Amino acid sequence: MKNLFKILYLAPAMFIASCDNGFEEMNVNPNASTEVVPGFLFTRAQLVTVSTNFTGAAYLTIGGSMQHFATYKEVPAAGDKYFSFTYSQGSWNLYGGNPVTEGAVIDIAQVIEAVSENPADINKLSVARIWKAYLFHRLTDLYGDIPYFDAGKALSSQNFTPKYDTQQAIYADLLKELEESVNAFDAAQPTFGTADLVYGGDITKWKKFAYSLMLRLGMRLTEVDAASAETWVKKAIAGGVIITDADIATIAYVDGSITASRNFISSGLMSTDYVSPGGDNVEGGKLAKTLVDHLKTTKDPRLNVISVVWTKASATAPYVADTATALQKGMPNAAFNSLPADFDSYSEPNPNTILKYNAPLLVFTPAEVHLLLAEAGLRGWYAATTPAAEYESAVVSGMKQWAAFGAGGVISDAKIAAYLKANPFKATGTLAEKMEQIGTQKWVALFLEDEYEIWSNWRRTGYPKLTPTNYPGNLTGGKIPTRFVIPDSEEQYNQANFYEARTRQGGTNTLSSTVWWDK
């Protein structure tokens, strides 16, 4: 992969091979573990998978292009003005990079290798394989054809130039891995226990997570292989998916002095834009007009959970985070190239919910699953309930989940009922209208927690309908970005494999390239 792997893994191997007079003992760090500790590495793999490159990828690139956020500046405008592709390259560090905060691919590969040796570790192996599927589905959805079967083998096999596999082949294996993993669980065997930050070793919940991921991936195939999509969607539903709050997949964080213990979303947003109220901020960001206008038009009570405008009673009074609906105003995407005079009047994330360092990360929610079930119902693949019922359950779950962020996130039953009454599911509408309603609801329900999935669903379905920007000099010709850019280092260190994959994907490596399932 990148040159870092050669420095870490190739150079020591060459040194040891050429010196056999006892120097290998001198080349061992006495303060470092010489054995894989599966529980520790699994914890690390979970944390690194969800957090790597959040600011550059989920916030500035996807958050801007999906019109959740806007910026007046040009440098961070990968999603707002379709400028720099640099931010999108950072997610490639899931393969390796900073040895403390990146490299989940290597971590999970080492975990799987370590727990494969003992039959009693079957539950640990199954959970690790499920998490590997979660990790690689994100990577392939961002970049398309990527190293998969050969990935993470720089240490074990000295393979520094892994081949790129087609996304079609990767998806087939991810689905196989999920199915085999859930079938292999054994309630009589040990688990990762507290080293598992998501479910604490609860294999019943991990089965639901795996089947929910299978449902998501199966639905991703609708435009390229409808028959396989139907097969996997039905298999996932039959297996049992996440439909109650008791099974929601979360990672807890604390408001501690150690940055790594804090929620990386709040830390990222606070360090880049929302450090203090009033005045300019680092990346020039605010919530986008498209998002705020939609929430106001539909009278969505999540607006008051998500959004604030900082106000002052007088010039000397302190700023107050005001959630009043009338005050909320989103900043237009790609509308400015310098600080707008009314910058302070635009909405930004609520410090009492989103910006709390101890806010939980919602990894996989009932709201998303209910929306997937609603779509499955529309396609005739699920008849246990109606699409309308699943849509309503998604709305309720999507609003109730904000209570996990504290008192500022609580939405009353009365407000939820009023929203559903004002925005009922279009039971008599066209298929396109129903799909649009489901896609738009997902765009709101997964806001901030899973921008990656919002972007993938938009690329697959075209919903919600977003009007692209066309800022002068942009890199896409006024087209919303549709793929991340693989780093230049691959062209230097893994050139033959990179070129082969690039040719396979249309000969380009740009923000306007597309992945296999995006038709």
Automatic annotation (TrEMBL):
Coiled coil, from the record: none
Alphabetized InterPro entries for the sequence: SusD-like_2, TPR-like_helical_dom_sf
Entries under SUPFAM superfamilies matching the protein: TPR-like
Family annotation (Pfam families): SusD-like_2
Keyword check for RNA-binding: no
Record flagged with keyword Aminoacyl-tRNA synthetase: no
Keywords: Lipoprotein
Full protein name: SusD/RagB family nutrient-binding outer membrane lipoprotein
Organism field: Dyadobacter chenwenxiniae
